[in-house]
Amino acid sequence: MEFLPESGGILSMLLQATLMVKVVLLFLLGMSIWCWTIIIFKILLINKAKRQVVEGYDAFLQAEDLSAGLHAVSRDPKSPLAVVGSMAVREFRKLESADIEKERKRYLVKDTLRRILRQAVSAEMKRLSSSIPFLATSANSAPFIGLFGTVWGIMHAFHSIGQAQSAALATVAPGISEALVTTAIGLLVAIPATIAYNFFLGMLTVVETEMVNFAGAFLNRVEREVSWASSRGSRRDNE
Length: 239
What we know:
Layout: H1 9-15, H2 19-62, H3 66-73, H4 80-97, H5 102-129, H6 132-164, H7 169-225, H8 231-238
């Protein structure tokens, strides 16, 4: 194409672009680098967490009792279930040793554990999902940022037509072509960010579901296996 730079191709064309177009391109480049950094890091982190919670929950269900189940979950201290379980056990021990009436203690245990488990699950989900909203922001904004660069470049191209007093293709095409590149790069940023964001949402849903199921199973085992915390223990005391 005669209107493209004779040497260097697209790179040479971009180097000759207006300052505003270069700023837009640099901004999109930085956004793309940060998006791919998040994508790579989160793939490793969330995939590991997903494997840990699925295996940990299965091990907890297969354990003979609550103590064995917590031991199985805690084999990997950094597992989300290990963190959630340790917080619940810590609060359980505090309540167990509290100097209050047994009946009141029994009344408080499930509500207290339910609250702590909910907080622990929420904290783990917040940790795992950190930085992911940036992918959604990039997916939504990158095409418009690129479009802004395109509009600016086309404005500059029409300005060049006026100065040259010629509407020949060779006069207008370089400015328009460099302007369209910003829209293309904006889409190149947005498409991977959109795919990754939805992919991570699906994985996080699995992780959250397994942690919520673990919390429910933990509460059920406390109710069944810890005498002072169970309603059956209350009936025995009354008898």
